[in-house]
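Researcher: Here's a chain I'd like modeled. Treat it as a single chain, no partners, no ligands.
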Amino acid sequence: MSTARIRPLFWATVICLVYGLAPAGAEAVPLGKAVYIKVSDQNLYLHASGGSNPGAEQTLHSCPKGNNHPNCQWVFEPSPTRKDAYYIKISDQNLYLHASGGSNSGAQQTLHPCPKNNDHANCQWFVEASPSRPGAIYLRSAGASLYLHASGGSNPGAKQTLHPCPKGNNHGNCQWIIEGGAVAVAPPPPPPPPPAPQAGDVMAGERVYLKISDQPLYLHAEGGSGEGAEQTLHACPNRLFPK
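Model: Modeled as a single isolated chain. C-alpha coordinates:
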Protein backbone atom coordinates (compact mmCIF):
# COMPACT_ATOMS: atom_id res chain seq x y z
CA MET A 1 0.00 0.00 0.00
CA SER A 2 1.33 3.42 -0.91
CA THR A 3 2.29 5.67 1.94
CA ALA A 4 1.22 8.82 0.08
CA ARG A 5 -1.39 10.69 2.04
CA ILE A 6 -4.40 12.44 0.60
CA ARG A 7 -6.01 15.22 2.60
CA PRO A 8 -9.68 16.05 1.98
CA LEU A 9 -10.24 19.52 0.51
CA PHE A 10 -6.60 20.68 0.55
CA TRP A 11 -3.12 19.68 -0.44
CA ALA A 12 0.15 20.03 1.41
CA THR A 13 2.85 21.85 -0.53
CA VAL A 14 6.50 21.13 0.10
CA ILE A 15 8.91 23.92 -0.75
CA CYS A 16 12.55 22.96 -1.13
CA LEU A 17 15.13 25.72 -0.69
CA VAL A 18 18.44 24.80 -2.25
CA TYR A 19 21.56 26.43 -0.90
CA GLY A 20 25.16 26.01 -2.00
CA LEU A 21 25.77 22.32 -2.74
CA ALA A 22 29.56 22.15 -2.87
CA PRO A 23 32.64 23.77 -1.40
CA ALA A 24 33.57 27.03 -3.06
CA GLY A 25 37.13 25.88 -3.77
CA ALA A 26 39.58 23.06 -3.38
CA GLU A 27 40.54 23.97 0.19
CA ALA A 28 38.72 25.46 3.14
CA VAL A 29 40.80 28.07 4.90
CA PRO A 30 40.82 28.14 8.69
CA LEU A 31 38.44 30.77 9.96
CA GLY A 32 40.42 33.81 11.02
CA LYS A 33 42.81 33.67 8.05
CA ALA A 34 43.10 36.76 5.83
CA VAL A 35 41.96 36.20 2.23
CA TYR A 36 41.46 38.23 -0.92
CA ILE A 37 37.98 38.43 -2.48
CA LYS A 38 38.33 38.69 -6.26
CA VAL A 39 35.52 39.50 -8.68
CA SER A 40 35.09 36.44 -10.87
CA ASP A 41 35.71 37.98 -14.31
CA GLN A 42 38.59 40.42 -13.73
CA ASN A 43 41.81 40.64 -11.74
CA LEU A 44 40.20 43.12 -9.35
CA TYR A 45 39.54 42.75 -5.65
CA LEU A 46 37.13 43.92 -3.00
CA HIS A 47 38.80 46.68 -1.01
CA ALA A 48 38.01 49.50 1.43
CA SER A 49 38.58 52.71 -0.49
CA GLY A 50 40.98 55.07 1.28
CA GLY A 51 41.87 52.62 4.02
CA SER A 52 40.22 50.58 6.75
CA ASN A 53 38.15 53.38 8.26
CA PRO A 54 34.55 53.48 9.56
CA GLY A 55 32.24 54.28 6.67
CA ALA A 56 34.86 53.47 4.00
CA GLU A 57 33.17 52.51 0.73
CA GLN A 58 33.89 49.16 -0.87
CA THR A 59 35.21 49.34 -4.43
CA LEU A 60 37.18 47.16 -6.86
CA HIS A 61 40.94 47.62 -6.92
CA SER A 62 43.92 45.80 -8.43
CA CYS A 63 45.32 45.16 -4.92
CA PRO A 64 48.87 44.07 -5.85
CA LYS A 65 49.54 41.26 -3.40
CA GLY A 66 53.19 42.18 -3.11
CA ASN A 67 52.10 45.41 -1.43
CA ASN A 68 50.19 43.48 1.24
CA HIS A 69 47.55 46.20 1.62
CA PRO A 70 45.43 45.31 4.69
CA ASN A 71 42.40 47.11 3.25
CA CYS A 72 42.41 44.55 0.41
CA GLN A 73 42.22 41.55 2.72
CA TRP A 74 39.33 40.07 4.67
CA VAL A 75 38.65 37.61 7.43
CA PHE A 76 35.53 35.42 7.57
CA GLU A 77 34.15 35.01 11.10
CA PRO A 78 31.23 32.68 11.86
CA SER A 79 28.08 34.34 13.10
CA PRO A 80 27.22 33.48 16.72
CA THR A 81 23.50 34.03 16.06
CA ARG A 82 22.72 32.86 12.50
CA LYS A 83 23.57 29.33 11.40
CA ASP A 84 25.95 29.18 8.42
CA ALA A 85 26.26 32.98 8.22
CA TYR A 86 29.52 34.92 8.37
CA TYR A 87 30.78 38.34 9.30
CA ILE A 88 33.41 39.60 6.83
CA LYS A 89 36.01 41.69 8.66
CA ILE A 90 38.62 43.96 7.13
CA SER A 91 41.98 42.45 8.08
CA ASP A 92 43.46 45.28 10.17
CA GLN A 93 40.50 46.78 12.05
CA ASN A 94 37.43 45.58 13.93
CA LEU A 95 35.22 46.78 11.08
CA TYR A 96 32.97 44.68 8.90
CA LEU A 97 31.47 44.64 5.42
CA HIS A 98 27.88 45.85 5.74
CA ALA A 99 24.99 47.14 3.63
CA SER A 100 24.58 50.78 4.59
CA GLY A 101 21.04 51.61 5.68
CA GLY A 102 19.84 48.00 5.63
CA SER A 103 19.59 45.02 3.30
CA ASN A 104 17.91 46.92 0.47
CA SER A 105 18.39 46.67 -3.27
CA GLY A 106 21.10 49.13 -4.28
CA ALA A 107 22.42 49.54 -0.72
CA GLN A 108 26.08 50.54 -0.80
CA GLN A 109 28.69 48.51 1.08
CA THR A 110 30.71 50.28 3.75
CA LEU A 111 32.75 49.38 6.82
CA HIS A 112 30.93 49.35 10.15
CA PRO A 113 31.66 48.10 13.70
CA CYS A 114 28.71 45.66 13.47
CA PRO A 115 28.43 44.68 17.17
CA LYS A 116 27.67 40.97 16.99
CA ASN A 117 25.31 41.00 19.97
CA ASN A 118 23.03 43.29 17.94
CA ASP A 119 22.63 40.57 15.29
CA HIS A 120 22.28 43.09 12.44
CA ALA A 121 21.26 41.14 9.34
CA ASN A 122 22.91 43.68 7.03
CA CYS A 123 26.28 42.87 8.66
CA GLN A 124 26.07 39.13 7.95
CA TRP A 125 26.49 37.05 4.81
CA PHE A 126 25.78 33.61 3.46
CA VAL A 127 28.22 31.90 1.11
CA GLU A 128 26.53 30.17 -1.84
CA ALA A 129 28.37 28.13 -4.44
CA SER A 130 28.06 29.33 -8.04
CA PRO A 131 26.18 26.86 -10.26
CA SER A 132 27.97 28.15 -13.37
CA ARG A 133 31.57 29.14 -12.46
CA PRO A 134 33.68 26.47 -10.77
CA GLY A 135 35.31 27.78 -7.62
CA ALA A 136 33.21 30.96 -7.53
CA ILE A 137 30.71 31.96 -4.87
CA TYR A 138 27.84 34.37 -4.32
CA LEU A 139 27.76 36.44 -1.13
CA ARG A 140 24.15 36.85 -0.03
CA SER A 141 23.05 39.36 2.58
CA ALA A 142 21.52 37.63 5.59
CA GLY A 143 18.70 40.17 5.56
CA ALA A 144 17.36 39.65 2.01
CA SER A 145 17.74 37.64 -1.21
CA LEU A 146 20.24 40.20 -2.44
CA TYR A 147 23.89 39.70 -3.29
CA LEU A 148 27.15 41.62 -3.21
CA HIS A 149 27.92 42.90 -6.70
CA ALA A 150 30.11 45.41 -8.50
CA SER A 151 27.72 48.11 -9.71
CA GLY A 152 27.95 48.73 -13.43
CA GLY A 153 30.31 45.84 -14.07
CA SER A 154 33.70 44.57 -12.98
CA ASN A 155 35.63 47.80 -13.53
CA PRO A 156 38.36 49.48 -11.44
CA GLY A 157 36.70 51.66 -8.81
CA ALA A 158 33.27 50.03 -9.22
CA LYS A 159 31.25 50.46 -6.04
CA GLN A 160 29.77 47.47 -4.28
CA THR A 161 26.01 47.36 -3.85
CA LEU A 162 23.28 44.81 -3.20
CA HIS A 163 21.54 43.34 -6.25
CA PRO A 164 19.16 40.40 -6.95
CA CYS A 165 21.85 38.76 -9.15
CA PRO A 166 19.67 36.09 -10.86
CA LYS A 167 21.96 33.07 -10.98
CA GLY A 168 20.64 31.98 -14.36
CA ASN A 169 22.16 35.15 -15.85
CA ASN A 170 25.67 34.18 -14.69
CA HIS A 171 26.78 37.79 -14.17
CA GLY A 172 30.53 37.86 -13.50
CA ASN A 173 30.20 40.98 -11.34
CA CYS A 174 27.91 39.10 -8.94
CA GLN A 175 30.36 36.27 -8.33
CA TRP A 176 33.56 36.11 -6.32
CA ILE A 177 36.61 33.93 -5.92
CA ILE A 178 38.33 33.54 -2.56
CA GLU A 179 42.11 33.60 -2.94
CA GLY A 180 44.29 32.30 -0.17
CA GLY A 181 41.78 29.51 0.27
CA ALA A 182 38.05 29.10 0.07
CA VAL A 183 35.43 29.47 2.75
CA ALA A 184 33.52 26.23 3.11
CA VAL A 185 29.94 26.39 1.88
CA ALA A 186 27.42 24.96 4.31
CA PRO A 187 25.71 21.76 3.12
CA PRO A 188 22.03 22.03 2.24
CA PRO A 189 19.59 21.55 5.11
CA PRO A 190 17.93 18.12 5.33
CA PRO A 191 14.50 17.82 3.74
CA PRO A 192 11.58 18.45 6.08
CA PRO A 193 10.03 15.36 7.64
CA PRO A 194 6.72 14.14 6.21
CA PRO A 195 3.65 15.54 7.93
CA ALA A 196 2.37 13.54 10.87
CA PRO A 197 -0.83 11.58 10.26
CA GLN A 198 -3.93 13.54 11.16
CA ALA A 199 -7.55 12.68 11.73
CA GLY A 200 -9.26 12.41 8.37
CA ASP A 201 -6.14 11.34 6.46
CA VAL A 202 -6.55 8.26 4.29
CA MET A 203 -3.99 6.06 2.63
CA ALA A 204 -3.83 6.11 -1.17
CA GLY A 205 -5.56 2.95 -2.41
CA GLU A 206 -7.55 2.48 0.80
CA ARG A 207 -11.30 1.95 0.49
CA VAL A 208 -13.31 4.71 2.16
CA TYR A 209 -16.87 5.96 2.36
CA LEU A 210 -17.51 9.52 1.13
CA LYS A 211 -20.11 11.03 3.41
CA ILE A 212 -21.99 14.24 2.69
CA SER A 213 -21.07 16.74 5.37
CA ASP A 214 -24.50 17.42 6.86
CA GLN A 215 -26.35 14.08 6.69
CA PRO A 216 -25.61 10.39 7.42
CA LEU A 217 -25.69 9.69 3.68
CA TYR A 218 -22.97 8.42 1.39
CA LEU A 219 -21.99 8.66 -2.25
CA HIS A 220 -22.96 5.48 -4.06
CA ALA A 221 -23.44 4.10 -7.57
CA GLU A 222 -27.19 3.54 -8.07
CA GLY A 223 -27.98 -0.07 -8.93
CA GLY A 224 -24.37 -1.29 -8.77
CA SER A 225 -20.97 -0.51 -10.19
CA GLY A 226 -21.96 -0.62 -13.82
CA GLU A 227 -20.90 1.70 -16.61
CA GLY A 228 -23.13 4.77 -16.67
CA ALA A 229 -24.43 4.24 -13.15
CA GLU A 230 -25.68 7.46 -11.63
CA GLN A 231 -24.17 8.71 -8.39
CA THR A 232 -26.74 9.26 -5.65
CA LEU A 233 -26.82 9.59 -1.87
CA HIS A 234 -27.61 6.48 0.14
CA ALA A 235 -27.64 5.41 3.78
CA CYS A 236 -25.27 2.51 2.98
CA PRO A 237 -26.24 0.28 5.94
CA ASN A 238 -24.10 -2.66 7.04
CA ARG A 239 -20.80 -0.97 6.12
CA LEU A 240 -18.09 -3.59 6.08
CA PHE A 241 -15.05 -1.39 6.75
CA PRO A 242 -14.45 1.84 8.66
CA LYS A 243 -15.74 5.17 7.49
